Amino acid sequence: MIAKLKGLLDETGADWAVIDVGGVGYLVHCSARTLSQLGEAGEACTVFTDLQVSENDMRLLGFADGAERDWFRLLTQVQGVGSKVALAILSALSAGELQAACANSDAATVARANGVGPKLAGRIVNELKDKAGALPGGGGTGAVAAPRGGASADAVSALENLGFKPAVAARAVALAQGELGDGAGEGELIRVALKKAAG
Q1: Disulfide engineering: 102 pairs with which of 111, 121, 128, 144, CB 3.0-4.6 Å?
Q2: How far is Cα 169 from Cα 191, in angstroms, rounded to an integer?
């Protein structure tokens, strides 16, 4: 199975990119969030991948980080969520925002994604709320959860050292990351997460 591609960005479309790896062009379907992070044509890029094989199709899905890929895999386990809907959700929400939405049973946030109605959004948060604390996005699983220097994982660890339970710490950091965005630093995450955890 292809787990990761590292090469040059050849071209992009509305929901796909072609990545040249040693002269072989891989067509990779991506969320808008991942496409925006790949850079310009001709630049080096890396995507984490998931290979989906069906009776009459084989497609490679690409993600900016391991957290997004893990959420994609979880989303596609929910009845009614195929790869297109999962990518639409990940285009609308970051891993941190998605984790916070599931943890808080916030179906309205999930329903912001194209092609996701209230009923499907409700099913997604109901099925995934118990798994939200264990999945990346708020820092529940270390390095995979926080590709940008491990800030969210470090923030969760800091809260745990202050006496918060792991699930509470992970949820608070997920909420903080959803509010601050994926580029937030450790200090910012801890400051906002402490307010969330205390509240």
Answers
A1: 128
A2: 12
Rounded CA separation 189/195 (Å)? 10
pLDDT digits (tens, 9 = 90+) for 128-167: 887 766 555 543 333 233 333 367 777 877 877 788 877 7
DSSP characters over 98-122: HHHHHHTT-HHHHTTSTT--HHHHH
Task: For each of the domains in the chain, give its residue range(s) and CATH number, in order of start.
Answer: 4-63 (2.40.50.140), 66-134 (1.10.150.20), 142-198 (1.10.8)
Cα–Cα nearest to 99, from 62, 63, 64, 124 = 124
| Contact status, residue 61 vs residue 19, Cβ threshold 8 Å | no
Q: Mind listing the pLDDT tens digit for each residue in 111-129?
A: 999 989 999 999 999 888 8
State the residue for tokens 């899905």: 61
Task: Tokens for 141, please give them.
Answer: 């699983």
115-122 long-range contacts (CB < 8 A, ≥24 apart) are 115/84, 115/85, 115/88, 116/85, 116/88, 116/89, 120/80, 120/81, 120/85
Cβ atoms 30, 87 nearer than 8 A = yes
Residue with tokens 């941190």: 96
Q: What are the residues whose beta carbons fall under 8 Å from the beta carbon of 54, sequence distance 6 or more?
A: none
Tokens for 41, please give them: 């044509």
